[in-house]
Amino acid sequence: TGVEAEMVGADIMPYITFGYDDAQWSTPTGRFTMPAMPRGSRLETAWRTFYTECTRGGVLLHPEHHWYVGNSHTDSDIDRTLDVCDAALRKVKASV
Fold first, then answer.
1. How do residues 13-32 score in pLDDT, each as one tens digit?
2. What pLDDT, in 10s, does the model give residues 31-59?
């Protein structure tokens, strides 16, 4: 989609980080941390847009923690989630 983003974490515990505004998502020791997101910054806009659009699409992803894929999730659940995330990322691209 052309969004400055990266998926991090294990396959069953992914999380998305956005690379706008030189965001630092980890400490020098490698510990995950939420970067400062000044209101109206590209980073804050990307982050807020992504999670808002996912929720509007019926997919609730935790905005400050890795997500979890479990045995109860069907292939259809995962495909739907990916479709919603794709649409959300397209909104991010249009917003930043």
1. 999 999 998 888 877 777 77
2. 777 788 889 999 999 999 999 999 999 99
Which DSSP letter does residue 34 get?
A: P
| SS3 call for 55 | helix
Q: Provide the b/e sequence for 38-66 (b: ≥16 CB within 10 Å).
A: eeebbbbbbbbbbbebbeebebebebeee
Please give the Cα distance from 27 to 49 (Å, whole number): 25
Residue 9 confidence (pLDDT): 85
Query: For the CA atoms of 42, 94, 12, 83, what is the dihedral angle to 10 degrees?
Result: 160
Residue 94 main-chain phi, psi, to 5 deg = -75, -20
